[in-house]
Each structure stands twice: as C-alpha cells, then as structure tokens.
Amino acid sequence: MIKNSIIVKISILFVVAIIGLSAFSYYFIREEIHKENLENQLKYNQFLATINQLVRFGGNVDLIEKYLYELGLWQIQDENVLEKFENHLTPNLTSGIIAKIIKQENGVYLFLQTPTEWKLYGDLHKNKLFNYYLITFFAFLVVIFLFVLVIKSILPLKTLRKEIKKFANGQTNINCKINQNDEIGELSREFENAVEKINALNQSRHLFLRAIMHELKTPITKGRITAEMIENSVYKERLCSVFDRLNSLINEFAKIEELSSRNYCPNKQNYTLKDILHQAFTMLLLDETQIQEFFILPSENYVLHCDFEMLTLAVKNLLDNALKYKSRGKVELRIKGSDLEILNFGAPLPYTLKDHSKPFFKDTKSNKNGGLGLGIYIVKSTLESQGLAIDYTHSNDVNIFTIKGVLAQNLK
C-alpha cells in the first residue's frame, strides 16, 4: 500500500528533481568558472601586452593604475589574499616595472611590482558567481515550495478515501467536502453530490419496498382470516398453507433487501442443527410425515456457529431446490468434517455455481421453470454475510452442496 502511494511517488519525483538540480547547478557553475577563468586569462594577456607597451614607451605606475581602473580592475587590499602572492615577488628589483599574470583556483590576477612596492589587481567576477549561487538557491526554494504545495493539495485525498470507505461500509452520513479550487476539490464535490443522490434513491427504495410489503401483507392477512372461516378442513388447511407461504416469501424478500443494502448485522452464535432444520421445515410448510418421507437427516445433533435467521434461510432454499430438482430417492443432510452437506440425486447444474449465484439468473438450457432465479443467489448472499462459503460438486449422479466451516462442535 505504501509503495503505491501517490505521496511516495511525488516525494521520489521531487527528490530526483532536487538531485538533478543539484548536479546541474554544480556542473553549470563549475563550467562557468572554468569558462570565465579562460576569458579572464585571455583578457589579462591583452592587458599585460598593453601594460608592457606603456612601460616601453615610458609609462609610470600612475598611468598603468589609471588604465587598469578604466578596465574595471581593482586593487586587492585583503591581507589574507595578499599573503598567498608574496612568493611571486622578484627579488632584488632595482628598476623598472614588472607585470605578470597569476592564475589561481579562484580566479586570475594581475601582479604589478616596482622596486619599492607591489600590488595585486583583479576584477569582480566573484560577483557573477554569487549571482549563480543566488539563482541556484532560489531554484531550490521554488522546487521545495512546489513540493509542499503539491503535497498539501493531495493530502485531502486521505480524508476523501476514509469517507468513501465509510460510505462503502454502509455509513450514509458522511462529509467529504474539500475547500479546494482544483481537481481534488471538484472530485470531492461531485462525490458529495453522488452520495446525496444515492441516499435519496435508497430512501425512496426503502419507502417503495415497505409500501409494497404493506400492501401485500394486508390482503394476505385478510385472506388468511377468511380461510380460517372455511368449514372444509382440507380446503381450509390448503388455503392457510398458501397464505403462510406467501407471508414467508415476503419476509424472505425483506431479508434479501436488508442484505443487498448492507443494513443487516449478523449475530453469530451457537445453535443446534435440529433447531435450524425445524425452522427451515416450518418455512417449507412440511409436517413430520413429509420430512420422514423426503429427507435423510443426521442421527446425531450438532452445534452450528452461525446467524440463525440467515443460515435457516440458506438451508431452506437449498432444501427447496433439492426437493424440486431431484430425480429420485430422498434428500440427504450430513455433516462431513466441519461442513454441512445437502445431497440429492439429479442432473448436474447446467452452468457453473458462479453463474447460478447471479441474481435473477435464468436457465436457458433446460425447459424447467426456474422461478425468479434467486435461490442460489439468496444462499450465497446469506452465507457471505456470516463469513461462510458454499461449494458445489456432482459425482455419481449426486449433487452435493456444501456449506463450508459452519460446524462448531458435536453434542454428545
């Protein structure tokens, strides 16, 4: 995560820029110094030739100093500098004037000696070097300023990322506005608008679903009450079971809506397999005789670590599919290791489990009516909400659906 950070990449970019600027400044200033020394040496050679002509034609020291002053050369008075040139004195000079050029690391100088004194002259080329150093310093300041400015501009991305993560986890009350007049600020404002629209859509969806469920439950309840008034016990029982089934389907849709909107918080505890199956069979409207006729159940009782409502809903859908699509025999439930398996005789799934786990998936390879195509999708969603997984295999004309890692312990 850190290696792919934008801040790290920008920091590396600016470090490389500073190193490159330092290298460029070093070589540029060094070349400028070398170039200037060569120019000064050539210029001083011309000065020296002129001074020799003045001396030849009887020029004195005052005339030479006036000439050097007009050329922009100044006498150096710094004692520390002058000490370095004492070894260039010509001993026992009794007459005349000696002028020579002395090249040092820090520049080129004109050395002038008479029988009574000696002087050292140089121009102000160091001021030019100072200007180079000043420009380099300001260039470094600009790079550092840009670095701080860019980092300050992208730091709000961390806040924006945290708010987006909260929103992805289901928290709708977030604030991600950033007071910047750049792309990041524009991005935060657009995301804020998107959050407001999504929240409005979610609220309207909740109201719509609640209204539909309310409108559906009202006639179902009335129908259930009316069915209770029928004197024929057979018809009465059938109608009541139909209305119970419709009411159970509405409750299932409510659970699916909570899962899809991530508003459901699983409560995982230890429950016995017997209680899970009892609730699943109740939802399937199966009595004890039908259970013994259609199912083979484990003889031992087991403890499952799960969310009771969610696992019951998943097991109910698996049992319903196993009954609906079995070709012969009974549907078997068994415990294998820490997994719960549901087996039935039948043809293999025409598509992969991943395809069947898609919402509203339709089987176009067979002529069977697959309903709304929500069965495996509901199973997968309810299991994933608990951190569980489903697996599917087909062997020897047997379909095996496995809920992985749901067993807690065996009750003896």
UniProtKB/TrEMBL annotation:
Predominant localisation class: membrane
Subcellular location: Membrane
Recorded catalytic activity of this chain's protein: ATP + protein L-histidine = ADP + protein N-phospho-L-histidine
Record domain HAMP: where: 156-203
Top enzyme class: transferase
Keyword Secreted: no
Domain of life: Bacteria
Bilayer-spanning residue ranges: 6-29, 129-151
Documented EC number(s): 2.7.13.3
Database matches in Pfam families: HATPase_c
Gene Ontology MF, one: kinase activity
Domain spans labelled Histidine kinase: 211-409
Keywords: Kinase, Membrane, Phosphoprotein, Transferase, Transmembrane, Transmembrane helix
Membrane topology type: Multi-pass membrane protein
Listed InterPro entries: ArsS-like, HAMP_dom, HATPase_C_sf, HATPase_dom, His_kinase_dom, HisK_dim/P_dom, HisK_dim/P_sf, HssS/ArlS-like
NCBIfam families named in the record: ArsS_fam_HK
Stated name of the protein: histidine kinase
Annotated organism of origin: Helicobacter turcicus
